[in-house]
Amino acid sequence: MVSREYVKGDLPEKAAILQRDGETYAIAPHIPGGIVYPETLRKIADIAEKYGAAALKITSAQRIAIVGLKEEDLDAAWGELNLKPGAAIGLCVRSVKICPGTTFCKRGKQDSVGLGLKLDEKYHGMQLPSKFKMGVSGCQNSCSEPMIKDIGLMGTAKGFTLSVGGSAGPRPRLGIVVAKDLTEEQALDLVEKIINFYKKYPKPRRIGEVIDEIGIEKFKEEVGL
């Protein structure tokens, strides 16, 4: 299934998504890993209140969307936020969803925050043939849903397990596990190889569909597995 880059009425140049009322917009500042501090929360709340937002919505991509802004207030709101927009629309890396991992969670087996933030810094917003999502969990509870992400990394006592080709949406599918017991460095290296592989297939389709077309063994060969 081909993902459209934008829905009619969205304002990609303002990182704004048209709402159901057909008149107001939502914007979502980028919050890497969903980790946010009180001063940023206060700023978001103050700006939402100042411009008469209808609500603040915690998104599945670990962002805080300011919902119900007027078009004429978008530039001012972004200027006062002084935060990068989240890549909520477009054919790009939309999000890197991260669980608390060993940074915060007593169940964590691996440092999902450390790895996830490195992935976010490098790939968030990168243009790709279709929308692309990543998930990094610190243990097998998989709170960041890595198995339904285009690339998923799940922590175990021995390292990270990497899966590829998962997605949710109207045609959900689980990712295929292609590597286990990876160090952080090995995980970063393999993700880079997978992204470079995907860039060679410019037709707009999710990476799982590319793997279906060429076969999992050919995919492994191309990324050096």
UniProtKB/TrEMBL annotation:
Record's keyword terms, sorted: 4Fe-4S, Heme, Iron, Iron-sulfur, Metal-binding, Oxidoreductase
Pfam family, one: NIR_SIR_ferr
Domain Nitrite/Sulfite reductase ferredoxin-like: start-end pairs: 18-82
InterPro entries named in the record: NasD-like, NiRdtase/SiRdtase_haem-b_fer, Nit/Sulf_reduc_fer-like_dom_sf, NO2/SO3_Rdtase_4Fe4S_dom, NO2/SO3_Rdtase_4Fe4S_sf, NO2/SO3_Rdtase_FeS/sirohaem_BS, Sulphite_reductase_assimil
Gene Ontology MF terms in the entry: 4 iron, 4 sulfur cluster binding; heme binding; metal ion binding; oxidoreductase activity
Ranges where the Nitrite/sulphite reductase 4Fe-4S domain occurs: 92-224
Top-rank lineage group of the source organism: Archaea
Protein's name according to its UniProt entry: Dissimilatory sulfite reductase (Desulfoviridin), alpha and beta subunits
Organism: Methanosarcina barkeri MS
